[in-house]
Design goal:
Shape: globular
Radius of gyration: 26 Å
Distance between the termini: 90 Å
Number of strands: 19
Strand order of the largest sheet: 3-2-4-5-7-6
Structural class: alpha/beta
Bound molecules: adenosine-5'-diphosphate, ligand TPW
Length: 579
């Protein structure tokens, strides 16, 4: 054909290449480095999932939207890219909403994209298929919510969603895409030109020099300083700076559960094994990406040594309104953790005086005592496997495989795993987070395996596992290297409750006795193991790690072991009344 340019004729104009809404959404995501989508197909997004796959996106399809949403949230936490969850309208959207709210609560960046019904019909409440005003419902549960009505606005909609999820304090964003949008078409050149590649979506936020000085002055004057690392510090991916801060200042540190492994839990300056002592006794506490919420007793009361002298806080956080949310913060340091810690490090040279030996010595003494007590407990091998004898095995497995990601939920299963299983590398522990929510297990496990390619070990209470158990099919379908260990003690917390009414029904906390969760995994072609001893558990874990095959170990735990609600029994209103 001749390459001579000629004026465009009317018929040529009619056949000028067009692009539709489906394609624009896909290209907008790809342009911004999104390579994986977690979701569940159905009207109006079935074709979107197919076309995404055709265009090279990895589409991980779940059995329930909540788990796709949890996967997106975990992917966001692990990668600093917003995790994408894609659902159908009303019920699918609602199923994804818990995960969106949970992601926002945990400061994980994710975008819930849901198809929706026709605006004209929804707004007049005329009864459309899966009718719901999704945008209005999502708004109070996330950082931002947007709706795109026209194909030419898809680029802006996706860009705004990405920027909202990642900038400042990360969180969940809702993006509403009505069914009609996907079929709209426009000129392909104009359509592609309307897409936006977001530049610098999480801009560095440099702390003010006077705020840095204020923090340093306070830290310098401390007699019993403590650094408290939260999951914001893990998210920030400035691991070397955080390690340097701890090691150069010589200040003991406590990691919150998902900050475990930022420095290895075996680090000499870890104060985890003397937690209550340091919280009570510290005079200056520097919070790094951790909020003084219920998990830290709101920064006050007995836990913090009420009445034992003044305690002052330095708080590094990207959110300027976090400071003073519970107690007065003497030195707020607002900025991103990488920039704040680097700014502090600029003033911490060889002349920095390390904390008094009296303080570090007292911590070391308590640590030694508590660690040898723990070693004694772990060495016991009771006739029926309990949390400790099972977790002694998991502890060794993680020590031998420090790159593996541990997912953890339950009550006693959570508390014991957190304190017994040491972590050695950053962002290797994913758990129930700020809400203490059950149901994150399989979603988090799938995401961890998909985005990192590493082995995943999910330590699950039997109740906790039930919330997302059907996703073992998803794990098998994508052949993911996930080993689920169900700590099976026959119920919520434990399996020994009785029906107070004396009727035939079991107590509300009791499950079918001696259930074989391992068979669920076998039903889908994975490996199932029934383990009643630490030796059997050890063998099964080793095989799962070596093979990378989807595995579920039904670890039978003494049904009398554990306590109601684990370590937070006191939050139960009835327990409080009994006191
Ligand atoms: P934990 O539960 O581990 O104590 P929280 O979820 O309570 O941690 O706190 C995390 C904090 O980290 C939030 O206040 C959030 O604003 C902050 N944060 C998240 N990412 C960053 C970042 N990159 N820089 C600074 N602060 C951050
Ligand atoms: C969404 C309440 C907290 S812990 C838990 C429940 C139901 C399960 C504890 O039993 P499990 O663990 O998993 O067998 P263990 O080790 O004690 O035997 N619904 C939601 N979130 C929460 N937190 C609950 C209910 C709860």
């Amino acid at each position: 054909m001749s390459a001579v340019l000629s004026p465009v004729s009317a018929s040529e104009q009619e056949t000028a290449p067009t692009i539709d809404g489906f394609q624009l959404v896909i290209e907008a995501l790809k342009l911004n480095g999104i390579d994986t989508v977690f979701g569940l197909p159905g009207i109006p997004i079935t074709d979107l999932t197919r076309k995404m796959q055709a265009e090279g996106l990895r589409v991980i399809s779940f059995r329930h939207e909540q788990h796709a949403g949890n996967a997106a949230a975990a992917a966001g936490f692990l990668t600093q890219k917003p995790g994408i969850c894609l659902t159908v309208s009303a019920p699918g959207f609602l199923n994804g909403l818990t995960a969106l709210a949970n992601a926002t609560t945990n400061c994980f960046p994710m975008i819930l994209i849901s198809g929706s019904s026709e605006r004209e019909i929804v707004d007049l409440q005329q009864g459309d298929y899966e009718e719901m005003d999704q945008l209005a419902i999502a708004k109070p549960l996330c950082k931002a919510a947007y709706r795109v009505l026209h194909a030419e606005d898809i680029g802006v909609g996706v860009a705004r969603a990405i920027r909202s999820a990642l900038s400042g304090r990360p969180g969940g964003v809702y993006l509403d895409l009505p069914a009609k949008l996907f079929a709209q078409s426009m000129d392909a050149v104009k359509g592609r030109a309307s897409l936006i590649k977001v530049v610098d979506p999480a801009p560095r936020q440099i702390p003010a020099p006077d705020a840095v000085k204020r923090a340093l002055d306070l830290l310098r004057g401390a007699k019993r300083p403590l650094i408290l690392l939260g999951k914001g510090a893990a998210y920030a991916q400035c691991d070397a700076e955080i390690r340097a801060l701890v090691e150069k200042t010589g200040i003991p540190y406590l990691p919150m559960s998902m900050a475990k492994g930022l420095l290895p839990d075996t680090h000499a300056l870890s104060a985890s094994a003397a937690r209550s002592y340091v919280l009570e006794q510290a005079d200056v506490v520097m919070l790094v990406g951790a909020r003084l919420n219920w998990l830290l007793s709101h920064g006050k009361g007995k836990t913090w040594g009420a009445g034992q002298g003044p305690k002052q806080f330095i708080q590094i956080d990207i959110s300027p309104i976090e400071a003073d949310s519970n107690v007065a913060i003497a030195a707020p340091l607002v900025g991103d953790i990488g920039s704040c810690v680097s700014a502090l490090l600029g003033f911490i040279g060889p002349s920095w005086s390390k904390p008094p030996a009296e303080w570090t010595g007292a911590i070391a003494e308590r640590k030694d005592k508590n660690l040898s007590k723990m070693a004694e407990t772990l060495a016991k091998n009771p006739p029926t496997m309990n949390f400790h004898s099972a977790l002694a095995v998991v502890r060794n497995t993680v020590k031998a495989n420090p790159e593996a990601i541990v997912v953890n939920e339950g009550a006693n299963t959570l508390d014991f795993t957190r304190s017994i299983v040491d972590m050695y590398e950053p962002r290797k522990r994913l758990d129930v987070g700020t809400w203490g929510i059950m149901g994150i297990g399989m979603g988090f496990a799938v995401a961890a395996a998909v985005v990192t390619g590493k082995r995943v070990i999910a330590i699950e209470g039997d109740s906790a596992f039930g919330f997302s158990g059907m996703e073992v099919e998803t794990i098998c379908r994508y052949d993911l290297p996930v080993c689920v260990v169900v700590f099976n003690n026959n119920g919520v917390y434990k399996g020994t409750d009785v029906n107070l009414g004396g009727g035939k029904d079991v107590a509300p906390t009791v499950f079918v006795k001696n259930a074989r969760y391992d068979m669920m995994m076998m039903a889908f072609g994975g490996v199932g193991v029934h383990a009643t001893t630490p030796a059997e558990l050890d063998k099964a874990l080793k095989e799962a790690i070596a093979s990378g095959k989807p595995t579920l170990i039904n670890a039978v735990i003494d049904e009398t072991a554990g306590t109601e609600s684990g370590r937070i029994t006191s939050l139960n209103p009835t327990a409080a009344k009994k006191k």
